Amino acid sequence: MSSKTTYALGAVALALIAVIVIAAIGWGHDEPSVRNDGYGSAHDPGVRVLLEPDGSILLGKPNAPKTVDFYEDPICPACGNLERIAGQEIAQRIDEGKLAVRYRLVNFLDNRSRSKDYSTRAVAANQCVAEGGSGPVYSKFHTELFTTKRPSEGGADLDNAELAAIARVAGAPESVLQCISTGARVDAARTDATAAMTALEAALGKSAGTPSVFDGKSKIDISNEDWVDALTR
């Protein structure tokens, strides 16, 4: 056998080994399964939503024993993934009265949207829906906005009329749709989202990013698939 043939066979063998190693790595890092698939968003009529003075949005039953803080950007792919995987499990805990969630929405990815202000406008839309006062409506709107309707970074995003249409499907009244369509809360949302990002950076420093979930001042390890259960035991 010639040396050229030997080298060629060796190269093929190395390539096959590389493919096997890459496949093994992939098999060892399966994507987490969707938790409580089929439950949907929070839908118990007793769930309330409150737009707080600092622009954060509190979703849950009044006497929920545990409240966690979510920092999210409406474009953030990892935020969408968190909602897709854990959102239905969280919704069930909210319906059961075991958990409340305070959404502290940020807008640091505005420049990754084609309109250059999508995150801010989406935060404003969330605030408009929260002002409507219906927990189930807000939960459905938030779920849609972060999963099936979430724009990709750098891609086409949603205008205010499209955001209002999502709110309409979620069950929001006309006053909320007008709030979204006219951009009535955009300036306030920009201020609130910037302040929320400043607070997140103060807590985490250079590692600040979304999604970040806190139980009080403690950051939760959301890579642990049992983190929601651990909060509500």
3D architecture notes:
The chain is an alpha+beta fold and 233 residues long. It contains eight helices and six strands. The chain has a six-stranded mixed beta sheet, sandwiched between helices. The chain is globular. 41% of the residues are buried.
Question: What brief labels describe this structure?
Answer:
about 230 residues; globular; Thioredoxin-like_sf; disordered N terminus; Thioredoxin-like_fold; DsbA family protein; alpha+beta; six-stranded mixed beta sheet
Can you lay out the helices and strands and say which pair or pack?
Blueprint: H1 3-27, E1 48-51, E2 57-60, E3 67-72, H2 77-95, E4 100-105, H3 118-131, H4 135-146, H5 160-170, H6 174-181, H7 186-204, E5 212-215, E6 218-219, H8 227-232
Parallel strand pairs: 3-4
Antiparallel strand pairs: 1-2, 2-4, 3-5, 5-6
Helix pairs in contact: 3-4, 3-5, 3-6, 3-7, 4-5, 5-6
Provide a short characterization of the protein structure.
The chain is an alpha+beta fold and 233 residues long. It contains eight helices and six strands; from the N terminus they run αβββαβαααααββα.
Question: How many β-strands, per DSSP?
Answer: 6
Large-scale geometry = globular
Distance between the termini: 68 Å
Q: Reading side by side through the largest sheet, how are the strands ordered?
A: 1-2-4-3-5-6
Biggest sheet character: 6 strands, mixed
**Overall SS class:** alpha+beta
- Percent helix range: 40-55%
Helix-strand pattern: HEEEHEHHHHHEEH
Low-confidence stretches: 2-29
Oligomer: single chain
Q: Beta-strand level of the residues, as a percent range?
A: 5-15%
Annotation field: number of helices: 8
Arithmetic mean pLDDT: 89
Measured on Cα atoms, how large is the radius of gyration? 21 Å
Organism: Nocardia suismassiliense
Protein name: DsbA family protein
InterPro entries: Thioredoxin-like_fold (IPR012336), Thioredoxin-like_sf (IPR036249)
Domain Thioredoxin-like fold: 55-230
